[in-house]
Predict the structure.
Amino acid sequence: MSKLTDEALASVSLPSAPAPAEASSDEIERPRVPLLTIGAGAPWIGTEARDLWAHRDLFWFLAWRDVKVRYKQTVLGVSWAVLQPVLTMIIFTLLFGRLAHVPSEGEPYPIFVYAGLLPWNFFSTAVTNSSNSLVGNATLITKVYFPRLVIPGATVGAALVDFAIATTVLLAMMFYYGVAVGWSILMALPLVVLVTLVAIAVGMWMSALNVKYRDVRYALPFLMQIWLYVTPVIYPVSFIPRQWRWMLLLNPMTGVIEGFRSAFFARPFEWSALGASTVLTLALLAYAVFSFRRMEREFADII
């Protein structure tokens, strides 16, 4: 048997080894330490303003979406923003103005009660809608990272559209009843900011509680009804006995309602009530942000 020479061995082509199969996605070795961890920040008052500002486009998108969804496939459309306070004003005028003879401090009762209903309806609508905002955006919360404070804030921002539309009715009523507009009306803008902060604080707190305790959405309408009657919407502060008026100052909406009437009716402002409302609003906002940030870690798991 002849031996193969080195040249013959070199010319023999051996079958190549099969290429290793690509590792499946399940077999890829993953890092033991996460490269990036997304979680809630520390529960402090500073709410990462830079992060909120970076997501301002999302805020405007969610607010505009809420406005469009609210009036989509409705017959009257944005007219509901006017009908709700007007119909409520008519009922309150008949019951409390004509039958119960509740005083209105020299102003016609319809315009008196409408000036109180204007900020109150905005507050009530904003709080009710924002309390359900986190649960209603569960898919968005569990899949995408963004500051969760944007969601209840955008809901309150959407309610400002109804507030602006309803304000035109108040101006028309002032013209009808011959109520002159003075320089005090410039205070309306700071008061809008104040009532917006109150709505954000309460709505943010209720939205976080609603994620964990779903019966909040059933108890909140009852709470808002009680809150309406302990707020000087259908009656002036002077209607309450003097020894009990200090209790109204514990309500942050008291200074807001009275401030709106003073701004539109050119009356002296009750600075003590406004100061109490401002202090209570800031304290409530700080506590709401603290509670929201503390419960934020559990949103994606519970919701």
Q: What stands out?
A: The radius of gyration is 30 Å. The chain has one domain: 47-302.
